[in-house]
Amino acid sequence: GENVEQHPSTLSVQEGDSAVIKCTYSDSASNYFPWYKQELGKGPQLIIDIRSNVGEKKDQRIAVTLNKTAKHFSLHITETQPEDSAVYFCAAMNTGFQKLVFGTGTRLLVSP
Amino acid sequence: DTAVSQTPKYLVTQMGNDKSIKCEQNLGHDTMYWYKQDSKKFLKIMFSYNNKELIINETVPNRFSPKSPDKAHLNLHINSLELGDSAVYFCASSLGQGGGYTFGSGTRLTVV
């Protein structure tokens, strides 16, 4: 089955800096890669996703890149703000199996 | 107008008891899920239902029994609760295969 590894487990940056979180997946048939943000006491919230036919996707300050050959994908947050502080999860899915497998999470702390 | 709502938000109970968690979504989605988040924040799928039909059962102990009376509801009943069942349980829903998941705000279960 699919296995998703995520690094780093914690990331501290200064406000205005960029943050990068990286994930690798094991199942070459996976074709959908979402990213979720989880704030304290809340459920994970989808912030951006990418499908295997696209190499990069951007939405304002966040972007995701996908390298299918290497089986890794990354989340990039530019101009970080304190409200970006949360736990971020990557995930991967082979849509034929309808099962989203999550990475282990990255706790991002943005200091003012 | 919460999209995916779970009740209760907190549940404290003694070992050996039986408890239920309810989930409802008003998004018109056809697939619903239960995920367990442990103390290390790891999210693992337990069950998924598509149009009231069970499609994923991730080797969860048979003390856990999901029930989907219709495609907008997915409940989780747990018999003979154990200390190790303490976790946050998230309900989620999606439209079709490979769509983004919408999560509820979670139910924190504490078994004492």
Explain the overall architecture.
The complex is a heterodimer of chains A (112) and B (112). Chain A has 112 residues and is mostly beta strands. Helix content of chain A is 0%, strand content 54%. Chain A is built from no helices and 11 strands. Chain A has strands spanning 4-7, 10-14, 19-25, 32-38, 45-51, 56-59, 62-67, 72-77, 86-92, 101-102, 106-111. In chain A, strands 2, 4, 5, 9, 10 and 11 form a 6-stranded mixed beta sheet that branches. In chain A, strands 1-3-8-7-6 form a 5-stranded antiparallel beta sheet, with no helix packed on it. In chain A, a hairpin with a 6-residue loop joins β4 (32-38) and β5. The radius of gyration of chain A is 13 Å and the shape is globular. The termini of chain A are far apart. The model of chain A has no long low-confidence stretch (mean pLDDT 95). Helix content of chain B is 0%, strand content 56%. In chain B, a hairpin with a 2-residue loop joins β5 (43-50) and β6 (53-57). Chain B has no helices and 11 strands. In chain B, strands 2, 4, 5, 6, 9, 10 and 11 form a 7-stranded mixed beta sheet that branches. A 4-stranded antiparallel beta sheet of chain B has the order 1-3-8-7, with no helix packed on it. Chain B is globular, with a radius of gyration of 13 Å. Chain B has strands at 4-7, 10-13, 19-25, 31-37, 43-50, 53-57, 64-70, 73-78, 87-94, 102-103, 107-111. With 112 residues, chain B is an all-beta fold. Chains A and B meet through β4, β5 and β10 of A and β5 and β10 of B.
